């Protein structure tokens, strides 16, 4: 009986979801302006935990800005959120996403500096992948007139993180050398551009071989991620490098520390090696943890090396350094106005295409940033991927060997 009850509940939920989907187009005409589309993560796990549905629209509280979202950024961190591999994630169901751009629709009480109609980009503590978000005014920034919404969604997290690691943590100066992993990604390309604003900085980039043609001009030296890059770097710079930016973790931590020059700085800002399959893998987590070289403070002291960690979202949402981040954003916008930096957008995806977009990041196929374009219509073959459910209430998995999605990826060239 319990099983029958569960089946009936799942069937009811399925019928409700189907009804909501059919009536979605009629919501505005019925006068209900208090609902919005949003990507929902129903539980931690694979791509089948993601779906697009309608939910109540938020209203700004004291000190908040309500934004009609035009574009959202998609980051590797979002994959880790989906799998549940980050520390202390909020309990699902939840709306993922940490950054967006759009137009100010209203402001809460005691909110100064923004007016209705302002074009803005913003950090959001989750909830960014929706048509409307509300976020504290401290996390909102005005966009330059010539910046597109897609560029703005690709700008904030990547460039602020890159700038703070290079200049606030590692104190990048003329004549120094930098090694960056995942050089073809959003942060990697931001690092390369910011390094070009300082004279005589040598940039060593590590990236998958198929990305080399597209990003070769952005770095000084480029190596395949599958070769022994330590030996290749030392052939060029026997002493090593001054700054090493690592988003991989695992065995690369020890390699990075060994590659540092005296007074060099190693910065860990991610742990993508923990993500291998579609769902959380205890084996991958344990392997990555085991491969991390145990840091001996005495050895750091003797070798004059610095090891650091950096999390922009923790700095903003847990440690209250909003004013510092705003000052960094001001500097970055000046560089943008001077045309010294420009975010690299890999591709645009509709909300309903979030699964395909997330798979592209998982496959490390992107060059630059993937963007969820809220106003974009989904490719017909993808339209039902994030909305249709099976009778058991779960997404139907695609059969193995299905490469159709690769043929219909809406790339920007």
From TrEMBL:
Residues covered by the Enoyl reductase (ER) domain: 45-372
SUPFAM superfamilies for the chain: GroES-like, NAD(P)-binding Rossmann-fold domains
Region of interest called Disordered, as start-end residue ranges on this chain: 377-413
Keyword vocabulary terms for this entry: Oxidoreductase
Molecular function terms from GO: oxidoreductase activity; zinc ion binding
Biased composition (Acidic residues): 391-402
A Pfam cross-reference name: ADH_zinc_N_2
Top-level taxon: Eukaryota
Compositional bias annotation for Basic and acidic residues: 403-413
Membership in a protein family: Belongs to the zinc-containing alcohol dehydrogenase family. Quinone oxidoreductase subfamily.
Name the record gives this protein: Vesicle amine transport 1-like
Organism in which the protein naturally occurs: Seriola lalandi dorsalis
């Amino acid at each position: 009986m319990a099983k029958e009850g569960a089946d009936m509940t799942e069937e009811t939920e399925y019928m409700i979801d189907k009804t909501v989907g059919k009536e979605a187009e009629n919501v505005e005409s019925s006068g209900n302006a208090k609902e919005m589309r949003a990507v929902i993560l129903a539980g931690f796990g694979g791509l089948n935990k993601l779906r697009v549905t309608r939910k109540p629209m938020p209203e700004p509280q004291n000190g908040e800005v309500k934004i009609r979202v035009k574009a959202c950024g998609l980051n590797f961190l979002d994959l880790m959120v989906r799998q549940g591999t980050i520390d202390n994630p909020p309990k699902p169901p939840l709306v993922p996403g940490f950054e967006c751009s759009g137009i100010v629709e209203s402001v809460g009480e005691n909110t100064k500096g923004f007016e209705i109609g302002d074009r803005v980009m913003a950090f959001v503590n989750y909830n960014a992948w929706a048509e409307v978000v509300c976020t504290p005014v401290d996390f909102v920034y005005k966009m330059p007139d010539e910046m597109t919404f897609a560029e703005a969604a690709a700008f904030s997290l990547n460039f602020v993180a890159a700038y703070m690691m290079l200049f606030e943590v590692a104190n990048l100066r003329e004549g120094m050398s930098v090694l960056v992993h995942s050089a073809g990604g959003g942060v990697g390309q931001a690092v390369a551009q910011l390094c070009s604003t300082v004279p005589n900085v040598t940039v060593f980039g590590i990236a998958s071989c198929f990305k080399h043609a597209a990003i070769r001009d952005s770095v000084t030296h480029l190596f395949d991620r599958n070769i022994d890059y330590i030996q290749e770097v030392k052939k060029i710079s026997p002493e090593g490098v001054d700054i090493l930016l690592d988003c991989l973790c695992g065995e690369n931590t020890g390699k990075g520390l060994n590659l540092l020059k005296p007074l060099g700085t190693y910065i860990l800002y991610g742990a993508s090696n923990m993500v291998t399959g579609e769902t959380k893998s205890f084996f991958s987590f344990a392997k990555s943890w085991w491969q991390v070289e145990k840091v001996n403070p005495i050895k750091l002291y003797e070798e004059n090396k610095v090891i650091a960690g950096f999390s922009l979202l923790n700095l903003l949402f847990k440690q209250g350094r909003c004013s510092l981040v705003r000052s960094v954003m001001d500097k970055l916008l000046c560089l943008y106005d001077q045309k010294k930096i420009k975010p690299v957008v890999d591709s645009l995806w509709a909300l309903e295409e979030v699964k395909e977009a997330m798979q592209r990041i998982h496959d490390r196929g992107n060059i630059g940033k993937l963007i969820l374009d809220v106003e974009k219509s989904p490719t017909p073959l993808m339209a039902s991927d994030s909305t249709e459910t099976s009778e058991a209430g779960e997404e139907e998995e695609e059969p193995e060997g299905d490469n159709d999605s690769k043929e219909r990826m809406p790339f920007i060239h």
